[in-house]
Write a structure and sequence with these properties.
alpha/beta; 8-stranded mixed β-sheet; FAD/NAD(P)-binding domain; 440 residues; 24% strand; single chain
Length: 440
């Protein structure tokens, strides 16, 4: 039976679903509260997604951006971490159902629930022979992209057919947001700076990278001038930017655009957006909540569900007007939920409406190139790259990870080398296809 929040009723049971930015920052903000926290996640690590593309392009290792959740929370006595996958909700009874990795089902009672299950790359069954276009949301995605990109150069080395070689050396990135821009720039840098002396039969500098954006400009959430600067910088390092290019269908040799033109590329990467976790629909059904057109849960202004003030939804799962689906927003939402819980337990007025503070935007274009905006000030080039590095190191968890990351960045910049170039075996790659036409 659920217990109402009350100053004399301790410990108050808080269950958090998801160890991403929203869930982790909510847990940390409740460090000194008289609560008993259970953090449930199907992965045992917290993923620093802003640097995931650097794992996908061989700059960083998985461990440097994915510290274990138990290590991050080991000193917080009021938290226990469970490696399990949430499968259902019963808001009336105040219970969460989950399945442990060993297959054991469990029921977790709560007094307050925070759902921060994040987002996923859209996964749809393609037509027969549809070519896989991996997205970038998890460590598995990063490993797969890295293997596909590196394998493309290996296949180009093996073939004597000029047309076949050109197809292997052509890469297409779908989506002109920060992820697509950063991936395209790093693939171009990998071809032109890192791999040039490694092959005998192929000049990797001949590789072409096409960045396809359905809208009229790159980086649509950035100021327009920075989008234009990003396009110019990408062109300088050999990326072909195509605006107004809507992907319509994929096959084994590339993709068809909505205007009838074709892009022949053996390696296609999907960076055009994500969809909320399937748990959004499960929660909406259980709590009689509504979803927006993107599949996110509509919440009240304080991030709780209508008719269920003890259930918070934050991060990529929550539909909050004017709040983008970025890591800083999830962090702020996690802290806001924690402040509300603390206020309720103390009998104080709650913070009320969540207000997002936009601290700016940053994106790396390539070697010594970046763009950014903060407090109305726009900057680019090496200054933007320096600001980007400082900001990301500030939020990267663990001093050891920060030190190793700086070392790898310097090595990549000075030695033009990337140590993480392992190709996964063909059988270990995920067999899933993404049909982008569903999301256009």
């Amino acid at each position: 039976m659920r217990r109402p929040p009350h100053p004399t009723d301790t410990p108050h049971r808080v269950v958090i679903v998801g160890g991403g930015f929203g869930g982790l920052y909510a847990a940390k903000a409740l460090r000194r509260a008289q609560v008993e926290i259970t953090l449930v996640d199907r992965a045992n690590h917290h993923l620093f997604q802003p640097l995931l593309y650097q794992v996908a392009t061989g700059i960083l290792t998985e461990g440097e951006i994915a510290p274990p959740l138990r290590a991050l929370l080991r000193s917080q006595r009021n938290v226990r971490v469970l490696l399990a996958e949430a499968t259902g909700f019963d808001p009336e009874a105040g219970e969460l159902t989950a399945v442990a990795h060993g297959g054991e089902p469990m029921t977790l009672p709560y007094d307050t629930l925070i759902v921060a299950a994040g987002a996923a790359v859209p996964d749809h069954d393609g037509d027969d022979g549809a070519h896989e276009a991996p997205g970038l949301k998890t460590l598995d995605d990063a490993r797969e992209i890295r293997s596909r990109v590196l394998r493309a150069f290996e296949m180009a080395e093996l073939t004597d057919d000029p047309a076949e070689r050109a197809a292997w050396l052509r890469f297409a990135v779908v989506g002109g947001g920060p992820t697509g821009v950063e991936l395209a720039g790093q693939i171009a840098g990998l071809a032109r700076r890192t791999l040039r002396r490694d092959y005998r039969s192929v000049d990797t500098a001949e590789a072409t990278v096409e960045l396809l954006e359905v809208g009229p400009r790159l980086l649509p959430d950035f100021p327009e001038s920075l989008g234009r600067r990003a396009a110019r910088d990408l062109a300088r390092i050999g990326v072909d930017v195509r605006l107004g290019a809507a992907a319509a269908a994929l096959d084994a040799g590339g993709l068809e655009l909505a205007d009838g033109t074709r892009v022949d590329a053996r390696t296609v990467i999907w960076a055009a957006g994500v969809t909320p976790s399937p748990l959004a629909q499960v929660l909406a059904d259980a709590a009689n909540a509504r979803l927006d057109r993107a599949g996110r849960v509509r919440v009240c202004r304080d991030l709780t569900l209508p008719h269920h003030a003890d259930v918070f939804v934050i991060g990529d799962m929550a539909a909050v007007e004017g709040v983008p689906g970025v890591a800083p927003a999830a962090m702020q939402e996690g802290r806001h939920a924690a402040r509300t819980i603390r206020a309720r337990l103390a009998g104080r007025p709650t913070p009320g409406t969540f207000r997002y503070v936009d601290k700016g935007s940053l994106a790396v274009i390539g070697h010594n190139r970046a763009v950014g905006e903060a407090a109305g000030v726009r900057f680019s080039g090496r200054i933007a790259l320096l600001v980007w590095a400082v900001v990301h190191l500030r939020y990267l968890l663990g001093w050891g990870n920060r030190l190793v990351t700086v070392t790898r960045w310097l090595w990549t910049m000075l030695a033009r080398d990337r140590g993480q170039r392992v190709i996964a075996s063909q059988g270990s790659l995920k067999a899933r296809a993404y049909n982008p036409i569903v999301n256009i």
